[in-house]
Amino acid sequence: MDFIFNLIKAFFLGIIQGITEWLPISSTGHLIIFDTIWPLTPAAFFEVFKVVIQFGSILAVLFLYFRKLNPFDPEKSSKKKRETFHLWKLVIIGCIPAAVIGFFLDDIIEQFLSANFVIAVALITYGIIFIITAKHPKKVTIESLNELDVLTSLKIGFFQCLALIPGTSRSGATILGGLYCGCSRYVASEFSFFIAIPVMAGASLLKIVKYFMETGMFTLDQWALLFVGTFVSFVVSVFAIQGLLNYVKKHDFTSFGWYRIALGIFVLLFFYIL
C-alpha cells in the first residue's frame, strides 16, 4: 500500500516538475512544498528524486528542438551547422558558473537553504523583480539566438547561479538574465531551455552518484518511482514549453510575478503563522 501511495505522489510530483521547471515560478520550491505536505519517503530518496526527474524535462527540450540542436542534421546547410555549433558553445559557456558553484555548494544549499522560509522569501523577492522588470523593460537588442555572443551567454550563466537557492527558479533567473542583457522575451525563454540541458543533466548525475556512495543502489520500487516521475515530467514539459513560448509572444511576465508573491505569502502563512 505504501508503494501505491508513493507511486501516486511520484505521478503528481512529475506533473509539478513538468509545469514549473519551464515557467519562472520555481520547480524545486513547488516540489519541496508538496513534499512537506505529503512526503515521499524516505527523505534521502526524495532529495535525489526531485533532481533526477528533471531529466524528463531535459528530454522534452531535446524532443521539441532536436533538429535545431542537432549540428549533424544532413538537411542543414554548412551555415546552419556552424550556427548550431555556435549555439552549443554559448550553452556550454553559460553553464560554467552554475556548474562550478553548484558542485562546491550543493551540500550547503541542501542543508541550510531548503527551508520553507527561504523558498517563500525567494518566491516573493523574484516575483517583485519580475513585476518591476515588466514595468520598466530594457530596450530589446537581441531578437534572435544567432545574435547572442559569448559575453551575453556568460552573463546569463551568472544569473543562473541565483537559482541554486530553492524558490528562485532556474528558468526565472536565466530569463531575467536574458531580459537584462537585452534579449527579447522569446529569445530569453528559448535560451533558458537550452542552457538547462547540461546543468540539469549534471545535477542529476551528481545526485545519483552521491546517493549511491552514501546509501547504495535504488530498490526496484524506487526505480519505478523515478521512471513514473520522469516520464510524467517529460510529457507535461512538452506542453508547458510550447505554452510558455506562445504566451511570451503577446504577454510579459507580470502574471508570474504576482503568482510568485501570492505563493510566497501562502507558504509563510501555512507553515509559520496558521
Automatic annotation (TrEMBL):
Domain of life: Bacteria
Location in the cell: Cell membrane
Pfam families per record: BacA
This protein's UniProt keywords: Antibiotic resistance, Cell membrane, Cell shape, Cell wall biogenesis/degradation, Hydrolase, Membrane, Peptidoglycan synthesis, Transmembrane, Transmembrane helix
Segments crossing the lipid bilayer: 7-25, 45-66, 87-105, 111-132, 193-212, 224-245, 257-273
Membrane topology designation: Multi-pass membrane protein
Subcellular location, principal: membrane
Catalytic activity: di-trans,octa-cis-undecaprenyl diphosphate + H2O = di-trans,octa-cis-undecaprenyl phosphate + phosphate + H(+)
Keyword Transcription regulation included in the entry's annotation: no
Matching InterPro entries: UppP
EC annotation from Swiss-Prot or TrEMBL: 3.6.1.27
Matches recorded under PANTHER family: UNDECAPRENYL-DIPHOSPHATASE
Name the record gives this protein: Undecaprenyl-diphosphatase
